[in-house]
Automatic annotation (TrEMBL):
InterPro entries: RutC-like_sf, YjgF/YER057c/UK114, YjgH-like. Belongs to the RutC family. This is RidA family protein. PANTHER family: 2-IMINOBUTANOATE/2-IMINOPROPANOATE DEAMINASE RIDA (PTHR11803), PROTEIN HMF1-RELATED (PTHR11803:SF58). GO terms for cellular component: cytosol. Coiled coil: none annotated. GO terms for molecular function: deaminase activity. It holds the Pfam family Ribonuc_L-PSP.
């Protein structure tokens, strides 16, 4: 029998602000099951609800959100086993994405899938990042 745990963030979380968006759209920031952590796709959305105009900053905010979820679970980027990045414009974003990614994923590289997509939830968004991590239990 598998044990499933859903992450609930503190209501004053510095990175996310609250659980409002998760409650509104009825999903969890992360779900742990059978030794794996499935982190919901993260976008470049600041805690105050704003989205950076600069592509590198938007990508960085998305990685910071993933880092925050990992930290809440006692994990870090070395525990990530799969990374999927969704890009509205892969051609113009990939170099910037790789540059930002290298600041977070430094060793023990995960499997990485890069997907070009037509759009994300808000028109000003350029990238969404989803990861799967292995627990340390």
């Amino acid at each position: 029998m598998s044990q499933i745990e859903r992450l609930r963030l503190p209501e004053d979380d510095a990175t996310f602000g609250s659980n409002r968006i998760f409650d509104l759209f009825q999903y969890s920031p992360a779900v742990t099951a059978n030794g794996l952590v499935f982190i919901a796709g993260q976008i470049g959305l600041r805690a105050d609800g704003s989205i950076p105009e600069d592509p590198k900053e938007q990508i960085d905010v998305a990685f910071k959100r993933i880092e925050a979820v990992l930290t809440h679970l006692g994990l870090d980027f070395s525990d990530v086993v799969e990374l999927i990045s969704y890009h509205v414009d892969v051609g113009s974003q990939l170099a910037a994405f790789r540059e930002v990614k290298e600041r977070y994923v430094r060793a023990d590289f995960p499997a990485w899938t890069i997907l070009g997509i037509a759009a994300l939830a808000r028109p000003e968004l350029i990238v969404e990042i989803k990861v799967v991590a292995a627990t340390r239990k």
